[in-house]
Write a structure and sequence with these properties.
The structure is a single chain. Strands 6-9-10-3-11-12 form a 6-stranded mixed β-sheet. Residues about 1-35 have low confidence and may be disordered. The longest helix is centred in the C-terminal third of the chain and has 15 residues, at about 195-205. The protein is α/β, with parallel strands linked by helices. It is globular, with a radius of gyration of 19 Å. About 35% of the residues lie in helices and about 25% in strands. The structure holds adenosine-5'-triphosphate (ATP). Adenosine-5'-triphosphate binds near residues 63, 89, 91 and 93. It is a multi-pass membrane protein.
Length: about 290
């Protein structure tokens, strides 16, 4: 954990919601340290406040030369839209979304937000505006308050409590002997999967980014927890461009659009009803 703290100011904006998700955050950290391509270019600008109009233009990507993962992705997402990404395991959903915070660079093609190519913007100023919530949340050994505040260093007590409430954490906090001062993580109170997810959601509320990437949990939660998390996520998505790697039919049906990925390409795009009518891959997946 010590490694995280030294460059804390610089990377807090990135680590925020989860350092291990989205195609291996650990690996990403190694890249950050070693890969000059992911550094700022000398003429990179401070990103303006983004609205979140996202375009992928003929984007291809490979982790290694011999094996292309994404092939010629063209996709336009309007600011404020919620788009669900579905498709078989290995289709490239996670990889595609990992390109947005520039965890990896496309092999070819271009990604823009509000018309600005990603690499025109300073990395920190880009990542500050992208929230990540996944099932693979990183909690460090510290108080619950510190873990939530990780979403935005310098948040006030009132802001932290507000974010906790928005993430439906209040009743859990009240049930802990020392409330927000309770030590969590390996040396403290172990949180359940659902509780950890809510900490991630609270961090994202604090961060308040215009763009949100959600990696929906595949792990089973009890139905009450499930509902609470779903309603917290719904509230979180309001007013933001939301890209969700979706596993639940409820999420998929509510999305403005569904992108069906298969073998590194976009196979189908449309609403739930449109895709069902097409009787293609989506229909097969939904069945
Ligand atoms: P799932 O639904 O199972 O998460 P996915 O559609 O999100 O799948 P990706 O995780 O993007 O798919 O993976 C696409 C392909 O890229 C897979 O074949 C995977 O093995 C490979 N891959 C993913 N991450 C890496 C990595 N860091 N290095 C090399 N290959 C990787």
């Amino acid at each position: 954990v010590g490694v995280f703290y030294r460059p804390l100011e610089k990377i807090a904006a990135v680590i925020e919601t989860y350092p291990r998700g989205i195609a291996g955050f650990r690996r990403y950290q190694e890249l950050l340290a070693t890969d000059p391509e992911i550094a700022d270019t000398p003429d990179a600008i401070e990103a303006p406040a983004l609205k979140g109009d996202i375009r992928f233009e003929n984007v291809s990507f490979a982790y290694s030369e011999e094996r292309p993962i994404l092939r010629g992705i063209d996709l336009q997402i309007a600011a404020g839209e919620t788009v669900a990404f579905v498709g078989p395991s290995g289709a490239g959903k996670t990889t595609l979304l990992a390109l947005l915070p520039r965890f990896y660079e496309p092999t070819s093609g271009c990604i823009t937000i509000d018309g600005l190519p990603l690499d025109r913007m300073r990395l920190n100023s880009l990542r500050r505006q992208i929230g990540l919530v996944s099932q693979d949340v990183f909690l460090f050994g510290g108080t619950l308050r510190e873990n939530i505040a990780y979403g935005r260093l310098g948040a006030t007590e009132a802001e932290i409590r507000e974010a906790a409430a928005q993430a439906q954490l209040t009743s859990m906090i009240e049930g802990l002997p020392e409330g927000l001062d309770t030590i969590v993580g390996e040396r403290g109170v172990m949180l359940s999967g659902g509780q950890k997810q809510r900490v991630a959601i609270a961090r994202a509320f604090l961060k308040n980014p215009p763009i949100l990437i959600l990696d929906e949990a595949t792990s089973a939660l009890d139905s009450q927890t499930e509902r609470e998390i779903q309603s917290a996520l719904d509230a979180l998505a309001v007013g933001r461009t939301t890209l969700v790697i979706a596993h639940r039919l409820g999420t998929i049906r509510k999305a403005d659009r569904i992108v069906v990925m298969n073998e590194g390409r976009i196979a189908e795009i449309g609403s739930h009803a449109e895709l069902l009518a097409r009787e293609g891959i989506y229909t097969a997946l939904a069945g």
